[in-house]
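Quick log. Single chain, no ligands specified.
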Amino acid sequence: MESGCESVMVDYCIPLHGGNVHRAARARRVDVEKVLDFSANINPLGPSPLATEAIRSNLHMIRHYPDPDCTELREELARYLQADAVSVIVGNGGAEIIQMLAYVLRPQKALILSPTFSEYGRAVACAGGTVVRVPLRRDDGYSIDYDMVRANMDGVDMVWVCNPNNPTGTLLPRKSILKLADIVARCGAALVVDEAFIDFVADSEEYSVRDEVQERRNLVVIGSLTKFFAIPGLRVGYAIAPEDLADRLRRQAPSWNVNFLAQVAAVASLQDTEYMGSTRKFIARERSWLVRELEKLGAEVGVKVIPPSANFILLDMSESGLSSAKLCRRLSCSNILVRDCSNFPFLSENHVRIAVRSRPENERLLEALREVFGE
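-> predicted structure:
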């Protein structure tokens, strides 16, 4: 155990996901608000004021069941995404959408471009399928190795890719995703593109492939309102799928799977264009500043910063002599959480992911990092 932490330290284990502030607060015996969570990639500005007002003004409605069809939310999403409402599916977070896709399509074998979000593999396994992982080319900015994809497509009926990718933070050009879609289509498989962090990207329409769904019968695009609109406690995710598949997914969904307050908050969030613009400017500014400061520190202690595109940054500490587990333990002594990425396929025990937060919070993290690496 690290010095100064003995009285409150608990056994360290790698989390399946980031964002478990409740567990960290219990372990440290502090209030949740005292934990500074860089492990979850949530908009540091918090929810839209329109969303919080919608919740307050609709509290009396919790005596009723929510709209099981999420009609208003689906229509608002269709407007926001410039999609047909009949092709939009809403779920209790992106994780539920991922599970629904696996259960409806029932892939016997899925190819997952990795390292990436763990829920894809979990969903396929729970649906009875097997997984083959193809590494993204690290030396080329975690890009797609199309030859390796083709070489591993035998028997594959479903392919998963995340863009921007979690946890690397890298962004693939639209043409790269469409090239992958062509390869997958020729093999008769479905391609699922997770764009959960696309809203953080400037000129996101130049990277998103959601407008291709109606023309490509094998394409599904997943999105999330949790991260950009800062409502992870409400859980709202969506997908755009060909109309027949969208209908099958809606029939697969649990009844009343999106609660009433989540629906009204999501609708209000999607209408707050001022909040969206402020968020993108804020994240771009703070991300650039944090990357510069991390690169300065990294040059001194042997930490490489992977160039990010969304609201989180992957750090490679391979040359620092410090493991991700040890860093996480030491930062936890300061009530700071970062994401240990050693359980991501094709990443090592020296990778961590940190979210972009406010300037005072980012400064606190940097101070804690300097203390850890200076020991």
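Residues 6-13 have pLDDT under 50 and may be disordered.
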